[in-house]
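Is this the right way to post C-alpha cells for a design question? Let me know if I should format differently. Anyway, here goes:
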C-alpha cells in the first residue's frame, strides 16, 4: 500500500480519501451510503408484511428477507463481475510493456505490483489501474440506473393503495 499512500495527498478530494483503504480520515462516503440505504429494507419489509393477511405475516416476512438476501448476493455477484470485466479489458491495453500480468487481476494486485516497480513505471501502472477501475464503476452505475428506470415503471403500476386491515 505504499504506492496508494504516496498518491493520497492533502489535495485529494475527500470522497477519494474516504474510499481509499489507506486514508487516515473516517469513512464519510460509507456513512452517507448507509444512511441513504437504511430505510429501504425497513420500508420494503413493512410493505410486504403489511399487504399480507395477518395469519401469513410470518411467511411474508421470511419471504421478504430471503428475497432481499438473494437480491443482494446476486447484485454483488453480477455487478462485481461487470466491474472486473471492464477493469480487465481496460487495464490490459493501458499497461506499459514488461509489467507483470497479475496487474490485470484487480486494483489491489496492480498496486502490489506497482510497489515493486521504479517510481516512474509505478505511476503509469497505478494510473492505468485506477482509470480502468473507475471505468468499471462507471459501467456498473449505468447498469444500475438502467435497472432502476426499467423497474420503476412496473413497481409504480403494481403498487396501489390498500385499505388498512384491522
Amino acid at each position: 500500500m505504499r504506492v496508494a499512500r504516496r498518491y493520497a495527498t492533502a489535495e485529494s478530494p475527500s470522497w477519494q480519501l474516504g474510499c481509499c483503504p489507506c486514508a487516515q480520515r473516517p469513512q464519510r462516503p460509507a456513512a452517507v451510503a448507509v444512511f441513504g440505504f437504511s430505510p429501504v429494507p425497513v420500508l420494503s419489509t413493512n410493505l410486504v408484511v403489511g399487504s399480507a393477511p395477518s395469519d401469513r405475516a410470518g411467511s411474508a416476512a421470511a419471504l421478504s428477507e430471503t428475497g432481499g438476501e438473494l437480491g443482494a448476493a446476486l447484485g454483488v455477484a453480477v455487478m462485481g463481475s461487470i466491474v472486473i470485466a471492464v477493469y480487465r479489458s481496460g487495464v490490459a491495453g493501458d499497461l506499459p510493456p514488461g509489467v507483470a500480468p497479475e496487474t490485470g487481476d484487480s486494483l489491489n494486485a496492480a498496486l502490489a505490483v506497482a510497489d515493486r516497480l521504479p517510481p516512474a513505471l509505478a505511476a503509469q501502472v497505478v494510473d492505468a489501474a485506477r482509470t480502468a477501475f473507475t471505468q468499471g464503476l462507471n459501467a456498473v452505475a449505468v447498469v444500475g440506473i438502467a435497472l432502476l428506470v426499467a423497474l420503476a415503471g412496473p413497481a409504480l403500476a403494481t403498487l396501489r393503495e390498500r385499505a388498512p386491515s384491522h
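Format looks fine. Someone answered above. Worth noting: The CA atoms of residues 111 and 126 lie 6 Å apart. Confidence is low (pLDDT under 50) at residues 1-24.
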